[in-house]
Design a protein that fits this description.
The protein has 10 helices and 7 strands. It is of the alpha/beta class and about 250 residues long. The structure holds adenosine-5'-triphosphate and magnesium ion.
């Protein structure tokens, strides 16, 4: 099983969109997938068509030690969702418990998801306890990065933050950068791409996800791109991205 945290402290870069659509792409490629919403905004549920998500979810798992299986919902064949729950934001405010606070999810995930091939964790745009938990619980991180200048500086910070975790981990984290909301005709986007390739060789996944109106429309109808516009370029990109991840294929 591959446990992948989808992180970037920068907001709106496409973390949730990628978690939902890559999750579905992996299912269509024949894998069993669970997606976990670690963002109190709860947008992952919306992207998968659950407009009134249940009040209990990851909040109960992290705050009260509830068994993750009891709050997992099957949204489509082979695609399960653990919703955020109404109180998830309270995790960021936990003050006691020391290092244990950062490892709540490691315990929560123990012995869970047997038979699953991929677990994708959608993280909030912050660098608090929820993200720390995801990083400890994951073997890999997927970092959606948009093609603008501020993304580059943000990414440098994120990479150095991730390095600080390494001494506390059993295995090093595999880090994948995903070019998201990519506009190929924009010179800056291509410059950013070249810089990323130079600084992070063998870490930029081969297929960029283009900025596309259909992608922005998907959450409104609660469908993934494979349900909304199956033959679109975006659907093809997500299928290719799933293949990149399966074979760890980089640019
Ligand atoms: N490839 C794309 N093309 C067009 N719009 C996109 C694309 N990817 C995401 N969006 C839109 O951009 C907005 C932000 O995307 P998303 O919510 O996935 O980002 P995020 O990183 O999860 O944001 P946050 O940091 O708030 O959690 C959403 O309205 C989404 O529909
Ligand atoms: Mg999000």
């Amino acid at each position: 099983m591959r446990r992948i945290a989808v992180i970037n402290q920068k907001g709106g870069v496409g973390k949730t969109t990628i978690t939902a659509n890559l999750g579905h792409a992996l299912v269509l490629a024949g894998y069993k997938v669970t997606v976990i919403d670690l963002d109190p905004q709860g947008h992952l549920s919306t992207c998968l068509g659950i407009f009134r998500p249940p009040q209990k979810g990851m909040d109960e798992v992290l705050l009260n030690g509830m068994d993750i299986a009891t709050v997992t919902m099957v949204t489509r064949e082979s695609l399960s969702l653990v919703p955020a729950g109404g109180q998830l934001g309270e995790v960021e405010q936990l003050h006691d418990g020391g290092a244990a606070r950062a490892r709540l999810l490691v315990d929560g995930l123990k012995d869970q998801f047997i038979g699953q091939d991929f677990v994708l964790m959608d993280c909030p745009p912050s660098s608090g306890l929820l993200v720390t938990n995801a990083i400890f619980a994951a073997d890999e991180v997927l970092i959606p990065t948009s093609g603008d200048y501020l993304s580059l500086t943000g990414l440098a910070n994120l990479m150095s933050t991730l390095k600080k975790f390494e001494p506390y981990r059993k295995k090093p984290l595999d880090k994948w950068i995903e070019l998201s909301r990519f506009v190929n005709r924009r010179r800056l986007a291509n410059e950013v791409k070249e810089k990323l390739l130079k600084h992070f060789p063998n870490q930029v996944l081969a297929t960029p996800i283009s900025e596309a109106a259909v992608m922005a429309e998907c959450p409104g109808v609660g469908r993934t791109i494979f349900e909304y516009r199956r033959t679109s370029r975006s659907a093809k990109e997500f299928a290719a991205l799933a293949d990149d991840l399966i074979h760890t294929r980089c640019m």
